[in-house]
Amino acid sequence: MIQRIQTLFLLAVAVLSGLMLTGDLVMMDSGGGTLFSINFMGLAEEGGRILQRLWPLTFLLALVPILALVALFLYRKRTLQMRVTMIVLLLSLGTLILGAFYVVMFDRKIDITILWKVRALFPLVSAILAWLAHRAILRDELLVKSYDRLR
Known about the structure:
- This protein is an alpha+beta fold.
- Helix content is 62%, strand content 15%.
- Helix 1 packs antiparallel against helix 4 (122-150) and helix 3 (78-109) runs antiparallel to helix 4.
């Protein structure tokens, strides 16, 4: 299991997605000295008080690492592993799009300056790693099918 490259890709997706559950994803400055942040729990003020819960983003941020770990342990069922990996890829892209949507909506409500964090790129990196894992799983599946034809 560990010697397969897709295992490393899926493990990296799980770790990166798990890191998104801690800390701020995006910091926003309103210009009046008030800092807002988007994190796992929602929109928060500088002191950590939650102003608004962002349940869809929270759900996606929690679901991606769980599904990546599930896909990691489905190594005996490659077709199911490919499907779960594709779902992880789509959910990672959905996290990126939903996070950008929330930032744009808050920018429309309040004139803010966006201070990007490195964690804002983790969904994109996770999606790329999930795609690479999907390709490697597909390559393994095609190799096994070619051996079945030779029998």
